[in-house]
Every structure is written in structure tokens, then in C-alpha cells.
Automatic annotation (TrEMBL):
Record field: transmembrane: 12-31
Domain Histidine kinase: 568-784
Keywords annotated in UniProt: Kinase, Membrane, Phosphoprotein, Transferase, Transmembrane, Transmembrane helix, Two-component regulatory system
Enzyme class, spelled out: transferase
Catalytic function, reaction form: ATP + protein L-histidine = ADP + protein N-phospho-L-histidine
Protein name: histidine kinase
Organism of this sequence: Sphingomonas longa
């Protein structure tokens, strides 16, 4: 074994010490480096984790145009592999970015590299719903890409969607605001907005017009209020109350708009912004309408009180709110009880207690059915109530819009009775109509046959089926024409019906049937515009008429023979009578010598008889002439002269009978138009009638006077007078002869002739007489 020296050993130890120290030092440095590397590795992992969770990814564009990006970013861009250059950001036609987006991005990156200009750009890859935001600038030198650019890419899909949503919401709210503003501006009522200090901040056009402002700005600057006053109840009182209470405030205030006083309903509404919005509604017309409606309701109720029908009105709560006086009387209800607003059910019960409801078995069920009147669908219900005692009520139940009910009770008892009487009358009329001997048919205004009786159908020989078809009058006329003796006369039926319906004139005539019968027909207009066609069988009466006509002709011929005979006999009698009168006058005048007194009396009797017989013959001649004798000549006649001549003509008879004869002829009698001979005969007949009723010593008065329109002749006597029966027959030419005072029978033709002559002059004659009081005869003659 080789042994080292001490120096060598020391040197070796030092060398070993140096080596150990170096190793220790190297170990220490290694450990530090290892620790630093571990720290760097952890930091790098943390940074990578941070980058992976970051909302943005980086794309590095080097100065030579090369592009570095993570695979995740390439996926965002819709690329299957990471691009090498910016030009590779577009991949065909359906991947990557749009070519125009790549061009713009390239320009932005170039500007950032050269001028350090930052940019921000929003893009959307093709075929992707992802929205990306690019923010770029010059790359830091620490990245080892001096002169390059770094682009941060943010995924803004959610943010962009929210932005778009918010943008749409903003646009919608803007449109709503514009619409609301336009609506407020176009509103016909004044509207305004007050700020937190309650000063006007906005008004619409209606407000400006109401306060007579120039425009909204001028109105706001002047602070023109719509309503006058500043105290309690002023324009700010409602706004302050609404703001303080946090709920709308409403008040009715007066205002002057366009020079007219109006009543406004002002409503203030607090807003969350602290301000107050308000608007005003013109209720002047509404108030007037309410006042008018109130007056109308009062007038209507006053009118309902005057109706004969009972009226009751119930409110929505089914309580009685009104009833008129006829309702009180009809249902015997006290006004005090009705004033308590009884309910509908109680009113029905009170009606039942008063025996004013129909008798029903199930009254609760009946009452429940009547309660349904309140809920009827605005349809009036009508019923007829037959009450005990024969009363008939027509009930109308009308639901009201407010949920109430109006009841109308009309007493139709009299109408029902009249209808029953009318039905009976119609049945009687129908039975009478069908059983009349006269044929009747009723034609309507259009000419169609409406009604007929059995006699009508049997007379024309038509069947019931034809009449039931209501034929027109022309069709009916052509159908029955063969039954007439002259078929063409059937058209008269149509003319007659037309005259009665269209011209409203009644016409008639006669028609002969082919079987020899004769009928009288007539068309009578009826009040309803129809025409009544009647036909009466006059065959028997026509035959009787023909027989009577033949008999009348025979009687007329006989009368002419009689008249001629009487006239001839009168003329024949007057010839010897004239001779008798002439010889009697000669004897009375003493031509045959002086006669004894007794013979003179006999001669006077002969003269009276001759005079009376002559007058009687003249009267008979006048009567036989009939109408010829009634004819008068018209000329101007002095009535006083005529009356004086008549008085002189009767003077001899007056003297013989020793009658007191007074004549009073007033100048007012004047002149009349007539026949002087006939008028003189009238006065003579009146005087002789008075003379015939008197004995010796009687008295006769002849009086004449007149007016501007009439002349009057009065003859009176103080004779025995006439009873009522005799006075009634004094002017009858066929009356029985009467006895004169001397016991002789007289025909009394003078008074009938006097009446005949007076009436021929258009005058009147009257006689007044009482037994024992005498007789007064008055004749009145017209001037013209």
C-alpha cells in the first residue's frame, strides 16, 4: 500500500474540499433553479388557466404577417384549423369571416402596426350565431413580436343579444312615448303635467286653446292656469292632495273657456317621478243633461199620474221607487205604506190580500216566476189577469237597463165587455146578413168580393167555391152576364162598385133578369173604403106599379071627364042663375010695382041665394081648373086698392045682415108683385068666411099694413069661433060641409081657395080661433 505524504494529503483534502464546496454550490444553484422553474411552471399554468377562463382570446399578428391564435379562437371564427395569415381567416364560401370583414380587419391591423392606432370592430362569422368584438393595437415588445399587432377577440353574443333586446325595447318605448305624446296632444280635453314643485311642465293643445295662449311654451312661461282661484279648491289644491295622498284626486270646478262659463271635472293623478298629471273633462252639457233628465223624469211622473193605467217602478234592489195615483186606487194601497219603498214580493202579497191577483194554487211558485221579470233579457212580458169580480187587467212588465222593473196595469174590463158585446153583435149581424131577403155583397177597394150572403149567391146562381176565391168585380160581372136579359148591362156592376170605392158616390139603378124578374141595385160607399152592393127583388112591386100606373091613367082620364062635366054644368047653371038674379033685382027695384013688405023679404032671400050660388059656382070652377087655377099673373099691385075693392064687393051683403064692418088700411101695406084679381078674391073669401059665421049685429074688421119685406092682411070677427078640430080642417077642400048661422049647409070652398091663391104668391095664411072668442085670419105676402 502506497503511502502519501502530509502535503499531498493536505492538498488532496483541499481539492476534495473545493470539489465538495463546488458540488454543494452547484446543488444549491440547481435547487434554486429547480424551485424557480417550478414557480415559473405554476405561474404559466395559472396564466393559461386565466386565459382559458378569460372572456377574450388573443390573436398575435407578427410583422411578417404570420398569425398566431389558439385553437379555441379558430373555433370561434368558424375555422377548422388555425390560420397562418389574415387572408386565411376566410375559408371558402361558408366558413370564417366575410371577405369584406377580412379586408377591413387587415387595414385596421396594418394601421396598428405602423401608427400604433387602436381599433374596435364587431363581426359575425358566417354560418354562426356568435357575435364577436375585436379590439386591437400594437403588440408589446415583451411578446417578442416588435412591430406586430395584438388583437383581442371578445365573445359578445350574450351582450349583443341583450343590447339588441334593449335597443328594441328602447325603440318600442320611444314609439309608445311618441304615440302617447301624440294622443295627449290630440286629446280634445285639456291635459297637463306638473313637476315636483307643482309648476306646469307640459300642456297639450287643448289646454293652450282653453286658456287662450299662443303656444305651449308661452303658456308654460306665463303659468296660465285652466281654473281660476288660488285658495281652497283652486287649481293646485287637487294636485297637492293627489301628491300628498298618493292617489288620484277629483273635484268639480268652474272655468271660463272661449268666453263661456263651463263646469269642469278636474282629475289629478300622482306619478312615480314625483310629478302630477292632470286632465279636465267638460261636464257642462252632462250637468245640463242630468238636469234635463231630472226635469223629464219629474214631468214623466206627473204625466204618469194623469194616466188611467196603473204604473209601478221598482229599482235594482227590487224596492218600489214610484207608483202613480191610478195604481193606488186600482190596488187599494195606502200612500203611507207605499212611501216605505216595499219590496216586490211584499207588494204582490199586499195585492193578494186586497183580492187583486188572479187565483192560483201555488202562490209562492207563481210569485217566483214573476220575480224572473227583473232578469229578462230586455224583453217585455205581457199577461192578462182575470181577477175575482170580473175585473180584467192587462199587465206589461218591462225590465229597465239599471236592473229595475216597470209594471203597467191597464184595466180592460170595459174593453173585454165591449169586445164580448161586439162579438155578439157580429154574430147577430152575420146571422142577419145571411137571412136578409135583400142580396148583399161587399167589394174591397181593389174591386175584389169580400163578403156575401146566401141570397146573393142564390140570386146569381154561382157556387161557393167561386165566391170563396174573392173574384174581381169585372170577373164576377162576366160570370153572371148570361143571367141578365141584356148581358151587356153586367158592366154596370163594375161601374157602380168603382163609383162607390174610388169616387165615394152612391149610385143605383134597375136591372131585368132573363127569367123576367126585376131587381133594384145600389152601390153604397162604406166608411172603411169598401163598397156595399145591394139588390132587391122588385118584381112584385114593379107589377103593382104597372097596375097602379094603368089605374092612374084611367083615373086621370075619368078626372078629366069629370072636370069637363063640372065646368060645362057650371057654365050651364050660370045662365039661368043670371036670369033669376036679374028678374029678382027687377022685382026688388019695383019694376013690377010696389011689393008688400013680406014679398020684399022673399026677394032679398032670392038675391042672397043667387049671390051665394054664383060664388059657389065660381069657386067650383076655380077648383076644377086645379093647377091652372093656381097660376097667377105677376104685376105691380096696390094692396090697399085691392082690399078696398073687396070690401066694396061685399058691402051689400054686409048691409043686408046689418054687420058692423070696420076697415083699417094703412099706407104701409104698400105694393106687392102678384095677380090683382086673385088677391081681391083672397080678401073676399076671408070676408065672406067671417060673414058666414055671424048673425045680425056681428062685427068684422079688415086691417092691412106691412114692412119693408112683407105685406099683411088681417080679417077678424067676433063670431062663435071654431073648435080645434074645425080650425084644423078649415083649409081642407074635402072637409065635410058645415052649418051656417041660418041652418043652411055650406061647402066652405072659400078658405081652401084663399090658401091656394096665397101660396101661389109665395105667402102664408094662418087661422087662430077659439070657441066663443071669434076668429082671426092673417095673410102675409112677400114684396118680391
Amino acid at each position: 500500500m502506497m503511502q502519501l505524504g502530509t502535503g499531498a494529503t493536505i492538498g488532496l483534502g483541499l481539492m476534495l474540499l473545493v470539489v465538495i464546496g463546488g458540488g454543494v454550490a452547484a446543488l444549491f444553484v440547481g435547487l434554486r433553479t429547480r424551485a424557480a422553474a417550478a414557480m415559473a411552471r405554476d405561474e404559466n399554468a395559472r396564466l393559461h388557466a386565466t386565459l382559458r377562463s378569460a372572456p377574450a382570446l388573443a390573436m398575435l399578428v407578427r410583422p411578417d404577417g404570420r398569425v398566431e391564435m389558439p385553437t379555441r379562437l379558430a373555433d370561434w371564427l368558424g375555422l377548422s384549423v388555425a390560420p397562418r395569415t389574415l387572408a386565411d381567416l376566410t375559408d371558402g364560401d361558408d366558413a370564417g369571416l366575410q371577405p369584406e370583414d377580412v379586408a377591413v380587419l387587415t387595414a385596421d391591423v396594418t394601421a396598428a402596426q405602423r401608427a400604433g392606432r387602436e381599433f374596435e370592430r364587431a363581426i359575425r362569422p358566417r354560418g354562426s350565431d356568435r357575435a364577436l368584438t375585436l379590439r386591437g393595437g400594437r403588440a408589446p415588445a415583451e411578446l417578442g413580436a416588435a412591430g406586430g399587432a395584438i388583437v383581442w377577440v371578445f365573445d359578445a353574443s350574450d351582450t349583443q343579444g341583450e343590447i339588441e333586446r334593449l335597443g328594441g325595447e328602447v325603440e318600442r318605448l320611444a314609439d309608445a312615448y311618441r304615440a302617447l305624446t301624440g294622443l295627449i296632444e290630440a286629446a280634445p280635453m285639456p291635459m297637463w303635467y306638473r313637476g315636483g314643485d307643482l309648476k306646469l311642465a307640459m300642456v297639450n293643445s287643448a289646454y293652450v286653446e282653453a286658456v287662450e295662449g299662443r303656444d305651449a311654451s308661452e303658456t308654460l312661461s306665463r303659468g296660465l292656469e285652466l281654473v281660476e282661484g288660488t285658495g281652497q279648491g283652486g287649481p293646485l289644491a287637487g294636485a297637492a292632495a293627489a301628491k300628498a295622498q298618493g292617489r288620484p284626486a277629483e273635484q268639480v270646478l268652474p272655468a271660463t273657456i272661449n268666453g263661456a262659463r263651463r263646469r269642469l271635472r278636474v282629475i289629478d293623478v300622482p306619478l312615480p317621478t314625483g310629478g302630477v298629471a292632470g286632465f279636465a273633462v267638460d261636464i257642462e252639457e252632462l250637468e245640463q243633461a242630468r238636469s234635463g233628465a231630472k226635469r223629464f223624469a219629474e214631468a214623466q211622473r206627473g204625466m204618469l199620474d194623469r194616466l188611467s193605467a196603473g204604473v209601478a217602478q221598482f229599482g235594482p234592489d227590487r224596492a218600489l221607487v214610484f207608483c202613480n195615483q191610478p195604481f193606488h186606487r186600482m190596488f187599494a194601497m195606502r200612500a203611507e205604506w207605499l212611501a216605505d219603498r216595499p219590496e216586490f214580493d211584499r207588494v204582490l202579497e199586499r195585492m193578494r190580500e186586497a183580492n187583486r191577483l188572479p187565483e192560483v194554487r201555488d202562490f209562492p211558485g207563481w210569485k217566483a216566476e214573476r220575480r224572473n221579470w227583473f232578469v229578462a233579457a230586455d224583453v217585455a212580458s205581457e199577461e192578462n189577469w182575470h181577477l175575482p169580480g170580473g175585473t180584467h187587467l192587462h199587465v206589461v212588465a218591462q225590465p229597465l237597463p239599471d236592473g229595475g222593473l216597470l209594471l203597467i196595469f191597464e184595466d180592460r174590463t170595459e174593453q173585454v165587455q165591449l169586445a164580448s158585446a161586439r162579438d155578439t153583435l157580429l154574430r147577430v149581424r152575420t146571422a142577419t146578413f145571411d137571412n136578409l131577403f135583400e142580396a148583399l155583397g161587399v167589394f174591397a177597394a181593389d174591386g175584389r168580393l169580400q163578403l156575401w150572403n146566401n141570397r146573393f149567391r142564390a140570386l146569381w146562381g154561382v157556387d161557393e167555391e167561386f165566391l170563396a176565391s174573392h173574384p174581381r168585380v169585372d170577373v164576377f160581372a162576366s160570370r153572371i152576364a148570361p143571367r141578365l136579359s141584356t148581358p151587356s148591362r153586367s158592366t154596370l156592376i163594375a161601374d157602380l162598385v168603382h163609383s162607390a170605392t174610388a169616387e165615394r158616390q152612391q149610385r143605383g139603378g134597375r136591372v131585368a133578369f132573363a127569367d123576367g124578374r126585376h131587381f133594384e141595385f145600389a152601390g153604397v160607399p162604406l166608411p172603411d173604403g169598401n163598397a156595399l152592393f145591394t139588390m132587391l127583388d122588385i118584381t112584385d112591386s114593379r107589377r103593382a106599379e104597372q097596375a097602379l100606373r094603368e089605374r092612374a091613367d084611367a083615373l086621370e082620364a075619368a078626372d078629366k071627364v069629370k072636370t069637363q062635366f063640372v065646368a060645362n054644368m057650371s057654365y050651364e047653371l050660370k045662365t039661368p042663375l043670371t036670369s033669376i038674379g036679374g028678374f029678382a033685382e027687377m022685382l026688388h027695384g019695383g019694376y013690377a010695382g010696389e011689393l008688400p013688405a013680406e014679398a020684399g023679404t022673399y026677394v032679398e032671400a032670392i038675391l042672397d041665394s043667387v049671390e051665394r050660388l054664383g060664388l059657389l059656382i065660381d069657386d067650383v070652377l076655380d077648383l076644377t081648373r086645379g093647377g091652372e087655377g093656381a097660376a097667377v099673373e105677376r104685376k105691380d099691385v096696390d094692396l090697399v086698392t085691392v082690399a078696398r075693392e073687396a070690401a066694396m064687393a061685399i058691402q051689400p051683403a054686409i048691409k043686408r045682415h046689418k054687420i058692423d064692418f070696420a076697415v083699417e088700411l094703412s099706407r104701409s101695406a104698400g105694393r106687392v108683385q102678384g095677380d090683382p084679381q086673385r088677391l081681391r078674391e083672397v080678401v073676399e073669401h076671408l070676408l065672406r068666411h067671417a060673414l058666414a059665421s055671424l048673425g045680425e049685429g056681428g062685427r068684422i074688421l079688415l086691417h092691412a099694413d106691412g114692412t119693408a119685406t112683407h105685406a099683411r092682411i088681417v080679417v077678424s070677427d067676433d063670431g062663435p069661433g071654431l073648435d080645434e078640430e074645425s080650425a084644423g080642417r078649415v083649409f081642407d077642400r074635402f072637409a065635410e060641409p058645415h052649418l051656417q048661422p041660418g041652418g043652411e049647409r055650406a061647402l066652405g070652398l072659400g078658405m081652401p081657395l084663399a090658401k091656394q091663391f096665397v101660396e101661389a104668391h109665395g105667402g102664408t095664411i094662418s087661422l087662430v080661433s077659439e070657441p066663443g072668442e071669434g076668429t082671426l085670419v092673417t095673410v102675409e105676402l112677400p114684396r118680391r
